[in-house]
Design goal:
With 477 residues, this protein is of the alpha+beta class. Helices cover 50% and strands 13% of the residues. The strands form 8 sheets. Strands 3-4-5 form a 3-stranded antiparallel β-sheet. Strands 6-7-8 form a 3-stranded antiparallel β-sheet. 50% of the residues are buried. It contains 17 helices and 20 strands. It binds 1-deoxymannojirimycin.
Length: 477
């Protein structure tokens, strides 16, 4: 073997060792001052790279598969979920050409599809995404698309309780308990009552209260079935209104129910919903909060007794510090953020679920979810403390080390091994990259105080919703 070839091979082996080391090691041992600051231009370039990968390998499909370089649809027909979900991120980044392309794409969508869709998921991503396009462009044809889509979701709310069925057929309006195939009529609390925000916006822009009123009926139907100590459970039968599981918590399955009780009031003050939020946040602080080994957690409790039934945290409930901070409860928001950051430092990414009393991972996968970045971003904006920006920089550095591939980013099947998974959720572009970017720009580019985000990180300008019209357009008494 020639000497040059030997050197070349040795270099290759050395660099692949470094890469595999990089894939497993978090930057957490570095001092925050050692972490390289990222520039907004870097995030923007990564968004563009991911978007172009979607266009090259999965255009027209719902989701990009980054390892196999292909795409797949959620249902039998594509709903264009990735583009519609990505629009507001491309737009806040000033990528006008790409945003315009999606606006035109959305206008060509025909919602008259014989397909059962999950009401919760398409509400936050498609309806939320379309409304975000309209909020920015004021293109009346986009609003017509949003109204058409909203009208196709409404039949789901025609249940005896007013709580929507799990799925609805976009063409026929028929409903179903489980993707059009199953028999049950059970939904979780987030699926039951995460509609006030998008349906409120749709009512406002269409000047038709029917959407907000349907969302409010569903929310109140959940709230009025609270237990004697004041909690909803996590699974409910939409026809009988009976709880089929009696756990209560902040994790996926209940998270956005609480999020919208608070956030919808920021755009659409409604005294009844505000009361529900104030009541609920007091109960959360009283019962969910769990101090363990000198750290603050929020546990799962029995809705009837308030007893802790599981000491776990899921990466979804990391959204809650953002809500607490926005609500003015900075102390709790900072305490729980410190807990999330501590968990990140253990693995260099958050596992989907962790049992804190056993120091054990229950589900090790990570889809590069946005919530921890979202909360650090809110805390940085609200407290002005630099440590939150440093956290965000660390999260970015870690995600780059473990999850970047030649075309985009990928999820991992276990944070202990950082084994690559051929998947990237639509919320990575819609939310995760957006929060990274917004954390790195100044107020002239994006003023946090002027917006409220839906649960899929689509930002809505507060000034677009005039207080004097809200009551009439939404039918608030
Ligand atoms: C998003 O789809 C939404 O934020 C939803 O409310 C729950 N979390 C995922 C991202 O983790």
């Amino acid at each position: 073997m020639k000497f040059q070839n030997f050197i070349f091979i040795a270099l290759l082996i050395f660099s692949s060792c470094i890469n595999s080391e990089k894939k497993q090691k978090s930057t957490t041992n570095l001092n925050s001052k050692d972490i390289l600051q990222y520039e907004s231009s870097e995030i923007k370039a990564q968004m563009l790279r991911s978007w172009n990968a979607y266009k090259t390998y999965a255009w027209g499909k719902d989701v990009l598969l980054p390892l196999s370089k292909s795409g797949f649809n959620w249902y039998e027909h594509s709903l264009g979920i990735s583009p519609i979900d990505a629009y507001s991120t491309l737009s806040v980044m000033g990528l006008k050409e790409e945003a315009k392309e999606i606006e035109n794409y959305a206008l060509k969508m025909n919602w008259d599809k014989d397909v059962y869709v999950q009401v919760f998921e398409v509400n936050i991503r498609i309806l939320g995404g379309l409304l975000a396009i309209y909020d920015i462009t004021k293109n009346p044809d986009v609003l017509s698309k949003a109204i058409d889509f909203g009208d196709r979701l409404l039949p789901a709310f025609n249940s005896p309780t007013g709580i929507p069925y799990h799925s609805v057929n976009l063409k026929t309006g028929k409903t179903s308990g489980n993707h059009g195939k199953g028999s049950g009529n059970i939904v979780n609390t987030a699926q039951a009552a995460t509609y006030l925000f998008e349906f409120g916006i749709l009512s406002y822009y269409s000047q038709n209260p029917k959407y907000y009123q349907a969302a409010k009926k569903a929310t109140m139907a959940v709230f009025k079935r609270k237990s004697n100590i004041g909690f909803p459970g996590d699974l409910i039968n939409v026809e009988s209104g009976e709880w089929t599981n009696n756990w209560s918590y902040l994790q996926a399955g209940m998270d956005s129910y609480y999020e919208y009780l608070f956030k919808s009031n920021l755009l659409f003050p409604d005294p009844e919903i505000e009361k529900v939020w104030e009541y609920s946040i007091a109960k959360i602080n009283q019962y969910y909060s769990d101090d363990y080994n000198g750290r603050q957690f929020y546990a799962c409790v029995n809705m009837e007794t308030g007893e802790i039934v599981k000491q776990s945290m899921s990466l979804y409930d990391a959204f809650f510090s953002a809500i607490q901070a926005l609500h003015g409860d900075i102390e709790n928001a900072e305490n729980i953020m410190a807990t999330w950051d501590w968990l990140w430092d253990k693995y260099g990414l958050l596992p989907t679920r962790y049992l804190y009393c056993e120091d054990k991972i229950e589900y090790g996968n990570s889809e590069l979810n946005p919530e921890i970045i979202e909360s650090a971003y809110y805390l940085h904006q609200i407290t002005g403390k630099e440590k939150y920006l440093k956290m965000i920089q660390k999260y970015w550095s870690d995600i780059k080390s473990c999850c970047m591939n030649e075309i985009a980013f990928h999820a991992v099947s276990d944070v202990r091994t950082m084994k690559e998974k051929d998947y990237i959720a639509t919320y990575f572009c819609a939310e995760t990259l957006k929060y990274f970017y917004l954390a790195s720009v100044n107020k002239d580019v994006f003023n946090f105080n002027e917006y409220v985000f839906n649960t899929e990180a689509h930002p809505f300008l507060k000034n677009n919703f005039k207080k004097e019209n809200v009551k009439t357009y939404l039918g608030i008494k």
